[in-house]
Amino acid sequence: MNKILVGVVFGLILGALDGATAWFTPEVRSEIAGIMIGSSIKGMLVGVLSGWYARKVESTAKGIVVGSVLGLFFAAIIAVMQGNHYLEILLPGFVVGAIIGFLTQRMGTPVAVARK
Asked: What CA–CA distance (Å, rounded) separates 16 from 45?
C-alpha cells in the first residue's frame, strides 16, 4: 500500500473518531452525523497531503510537524466557520494531524520500492 493510500485510510478512521468526540458537547449532539462526515473528509484531506509529503521527504519528525500543521489549519477553518468551541475543534485536529503525519511516514511503501 502506498503512503497516500495509508494517509487516506487512517485519515478516514481517525477523522471519524475525531468527529465522534463531538458527542461530549451536548449542544451539538443533534448535528453529530454532519460533524462526523466533515471530520472524516478533513482527515482524508490531511491524509492525502501528509502521504504526498511522506513520499517526498523521509523524516518522521518533519512528517509529524506537517501533519499537525495541516490538521490544525483545517480545524481552524472549521472553527472559524462554526464560530465557537475553538479548543474542542483545534486540539483534536492538531492531534489527529500529528498521528496521521506519523503513520504516513512509518507505514506504506516508499516511492523507490514502489517503482521497481
From this structure: 13
